[in-house]
Design goal:
There is one protein chain. Helix content is 37%, strand content 19%. β1 and β2 form a beta hairpin. It is built from 14 helices and eleven strands. The strands form two sheets. It has a seven-stranded mixed β-sheet with strand order 6-5-4-7-8-11-10, with helices on both faces. The chain has a four-stranded antiparallel β-sheet with strand order 1-2-3-9, with no helix packed on it. The protein has a domain of 191 residues: 3-Layer(aba) Sandwich (Rossmann fold). With 353 residues, the chain is an alpha/beta fold. It comes from Catenulispora pinistramenti. InterPro entries: SAM-dependent_MTases_sf. GO terms for molecular function: methyltransferase activity. Keywords: Membrane, Methyltransferase, Transferase, Transmembrane, Transmembrane helix.
C-alpha cells in the first residue's frame, strides 16, 4: 500500500520530537580556538546563518583563519549532529528529490571526467568518493568506456548505486577506514564536492594517497569561497550549504598539502567547474524565507490550511523572479565569470608521484 508524503512525515515526527526535546546544543562539539588546517589562533567570524534548505532548528557559524584563509564551521557538528542534519536530505524523505537532481546533471559529470582526459587514456579502475547514488560514474563511462568504476559514500547511496548497476562495487562507510583495504588499487580517485563535507579533510587526502597506485591521479572539486558571489550573496550563497559543509579550503592550501603528500598538480581549473545556480538559489532562499514553512517532521505539527495556501501563493508570485534569476545564471558569459572571479568552485587534477 502506497503511503502519502503527509503520512510518511507524520510517522517520522515522534522520532524528531524525541531528538529535539533537549534542544540542539548537544549536536555541536566544543568551539575551536585554533585553525584546523594550520593551527593559527587568528580567527574571525566569516558567516552566521541558519539551515536555509531543510529549516531544521539551529544556528551555524563559519570562522576564517586570518593566517591561511581556511574557513571552517565553528563549533563543528558532532557525529550525532551530522546524522541529525543529514537525515532525510539525501535519503528518506529527500531520496527521490535528490536522486532526480543528481540524475539530471549528466553533462556536468561528463565535464568532470573530461578534466582527466588530457592526462591519461583509459584508467583501469576508478573510485568515486562521496559518490551519492553513483550518477557521476554512470555518466563518466561515456568518456572512459573501459574503466571500472567503484563508489564510496557514508550513506546507503553507494549500495543503491551498486544495485542499480552504476558502479561495480559500492562501499558504505568512511574513506579513511576503507582506504587501507584498497591500498594501491586504483588508477584514479575522485572527490567531487566531498572534502567540504568531511570532518578531517587532511585525513581524506592521506587516504586518497594510500588508495591510488603510484602514477595514478586524484581529482578534487570543492566550493571556492573566494568567489565574489560568496560576498555579494552573503548567507544566501548556495555553496555555504550550512550545516553540511564543514570546511572551505583555499586552492593555495590544497596545492601545498598535496605537494607535501607526494602529489604533483597537473591542472587547476576555476571557470570550468562553475555551476550556474548562484542567482537562482539566492532568489529561492528569499522567496522561501518569506513564505510560511512547508510541512516537515521536525516541525511540531502540520501547517494549517491557511499557511499552506499562503505558501503556495508566495511561491507562485515568486516564479517570475526565479525565472529571471535562472536566465541571468545561464547567459552569464564565461569570460565575465573569469574576469570578476564569480566561479563558485575550483577543480584540481593531481598525479601521485
Amino acid at each position: 500500500m502506497r503511503v502519502s508524503r503527509t503520512e510518511e512525515i507524520a510517522s517520522r515526527r515522534p522520532a524528531y520530537e524525541a531528538d529535539l526535546k533537549d534542544g540542539v546544543d548537544r549536536y555541536f562539539e566544543p568551539r575551536r580556538t585554533i585553525c584546523p588546517w594550520c593551527g593559527s589562533d587568528r580567527l574571525r567570524e566569516r558567516l552566521h546563518t541558519t539551515d536555509l534548505l531543510q529549516h531544521k532548528p539551529g544556528h551555524f557559524r563559519l570562522d576564517r583563519c586570518l593566517e591561511c584563509g581556511h574557513i571552517f564551521q565553528n563549533p563543528r557538528l558532532s557525529p550525532e549532529g551530522l546524522e541529525f542534519y543529514y537525515r532525510d536530505f539525501y535519503d528518506g524523505l529527500g531520496e527521490k528529490s535528490s536522486g532526480s537532481i543528481f540524475a539530471g546533471r549528466s553533462a556536468i559529470y561528463r565535464k568532470r571526467a573530461e578534466a582527466l582526459a588530457p592526462h591519461t587514456d583509459q584508467p583501469g579502475s576508478w573510485l568515486d568518493v562521496g559518490t551519492g547514488h553513483g550518477h557521476f560514474c554512470e555518466a563518466a563511462r561515456a568518456v572512459f568506456p573501459h574503466t571500472e568504476f567503484d563508489g564510496l559514500d557514508f550513506t546507503d547511496g553507494a549500495e543503491l548505486a551498486e544495485r542499480a548497476g552504476r558502479v561495480r562495487r559500492g562501499y558504505r562507510g568512511s574513506f579513511v577506514q576503507v582506504a587501507p583495504t584498497v591500498a594501491g588499487t586504483y588508477d584514479v580517485v575522485s572527490m567531487f564536492h566531498y572534502l567540504e563535507h568531511s570532518v578531517e579533510p587532511g585525513l581524506e587526502l592521506e587516504a586518497a594517497r594510500l588508495a591510488i597506485r603510484p602514477g595514478g591521479y586524484l581529482l578534487i572539486e570543492v566550493p571556492d569561497a573566494a568567489s565574489r558571489y560568496s560576498r555579494l550573496l552573503g548567507r544566501r550563497w548556495l555553496p555555504w550549504l550550512q550545516p553540511q559543509h564543514l570546511h572551505f579550503i583555499p586552492v593555495r592550501n590544497l596545492r601545498e598539502r598535496l605537494g607535501a603528500l607526494g602529489f604533483t598538480v597537473v591542472a587547476e581549473q576555476h571557470t570550468e567547474p562553475h555551476d550556474r545556480v548562484d542567482l537562482l538559489a539566492a532568489t529561492w532562499f528569499v522567496v522561501d524565507g518569506i513564505a510560511p514553512r512547508d510541512e516537515a517532521p521536525w516541525l511540531p505539527r502540520r501547517p494549517g490550511r491557511l499557511k499552506r495556501v499562503t505558501r503556495a501563493a508566495v511561491v507562485i508570485a515568486g516564479i517570475p523572479a526565479l525565472a529571471a534569476a535562472t536566465v541571468l545564471d545561464r547567459i552569464m558569459p564565461r569570460a565575465l565569470i573569469r574576469r570578476f572571479g564569480l566561479s563558485n568552485a575550483y577543480r584540481v587534477v593531481a598525479r601521485r608521484d
